[in-house]
Amino acid sequence: MTLEPLARPARLRPGARVAVVAPSGPVPAERMERGLDLLRGWDLDPVAAPHALDTHPELDHLAGTDEDRARDLQEAWCDPSVDAVLCARGGYGAHRMVDLLDWAAMRAAGPKVFVGYSDITVLHEAFALRAGFSTLHGPMIGTEVFLKDAATQQALRTTLFEPESVRTLGLDAAAALVPGTARGITFGGCASLLAADAGTPGARTSARGGLLVLEDTGEEPYRLDGILTRLLRIGALDGITGVVCGSWEACGPYGGVRSVLADRLGGLGIPVVEELGFGHGPTALTVPLGVPAVLDAPAGGGRCTLTAQVPALV
Questions:
Q1: Is residue 275 annotated as a catalytic residue, yes or no?
Q2: Residues 113, 84 contacting (CB under 8 angstroms)
Q3: Residue ranges of the alpha helices (H) in the chain?
Q4: Is 259 considered catalytic here?
Q5: What's the rounded Cα separation, in Å, for the pair 17 and 80?
């Protein structure tokens, strides 16, 4: 089965109501408030979900109980007055709550803007596979990269309001590990989360025709080698048309990371681009998932880009 484009949500308008949820780790209240203030400055109407500032009573790496985190996301999604659902941060915890969501009810509510990355990869995959909705691999409002980096803020803002003007992505540092041109449907996210999700209920069984979006943080090269090797061994990368890599923050010297990427992905016979400019790094561009796109990786040092063939939002 070949990947097909997913249903895209509507772009945001001034005054749109935005719910902020914490499906994974706890969010410092000060960062949450700064993020909400930034959204207000964009003429949005943001509201923190009821449990967005919770911490689990016994497991302090979680933002509240699994049930409460799931309830916040589901209620926000099914609330017709909410136009978008943005995540406050990643961390860990989405795996624990994803199966508690009523995906039939969320599918019936229709597509909405959904933004996050890192641990949120689990939910990107679930929205794609269980609801058929396109999502945005983009910055979370309670993270330093969003609060401090103007380019990250602008990329998200423009995607939300004027998506047709940011169809082509790629920082100057982007380079071809394996040159070529590829077309496919964007999917993916954090490498370690994709590997952890594989084989679980409702997980992806085929990525044929997909353009893989890939990044991670805190994984030493040998661990990244293991993550990519597992994805290769289980056939998760069979039939993909290209790979576009973002940042590998805190994954050790980049030379070692590049060697692993070249070794594990270079033999696939498809274009591979490095350092496009998304993920945990100092700048996090917003990448639409579930849309047809073209990856251009020219040989000889030309500019590498990922171009969505349709705007991320309608």
A1: no
A2: yes
A3: 29-41, 66-78, 94-97, 103-109, 121-126, 144-148, 150-161, 191-197, 221-233, 254-265
A4: no
A5: 10
Token representation of residue 283: 């700048």
Contacts of 254 (CB under 8 A, 6+ apart): 248
51 is a catalytic site residue: no
Of the residues 24, 124, 137, 215, which is catalytic? 215
| CA dihedral over 8, 11, 15, 21, signed as positive or negative | positive
Chain-centroid distance of CA 308 in Å reads: 15
Report long-range pairs for 98-104 (Cβ below 8 Å, ≥24 apart): 98/70, 98/122, 98/123, 98/126, 99/201, 99/202, 100/66, 100/67, 100/70, 101/70, 101/73, 101/74, 101/126, 102/74, 103/130, 103/131
23, 52 in Cβ contact below 8 A?
no
Q: Which of 56, 95, 137, 280 is catalytic?
A: 280
**Residue with the two structure tokens 């979680």:** 62
- The structure's pTM equals 0.97
Q: Mutual orientation of helices 221-233 and 254-265 as an angle, nearest 10°?
A: 20
Radius of gyration (Cα) for the chain, nearest Å?
A: 18
Per-residue pLDDT of the chain (314 residues; tens, 9 = 90+): 899 999 999 999 999 999 999 999 999 999 999 999 999 999 999 999 999 999 999 999 999 999 999 999 999 999 999 999 999 999 999 999 999 999 999 999 999 999 999 999 999 999 999 999 999 999 999 999 999 999 999 999 999 999 999 999 999 999 999 999 999 999 999 999 999 999 998 899 999 999 999 999 999 999 999 999 999 999 999 999 999 999 999 999 999 999 999 999 999 999 999 999 999 999 999 999 999 999 999 998 889 999 999 999 99
Q: Looking at 118, 134, 192, 247, which residue is catalytic?
A: 118
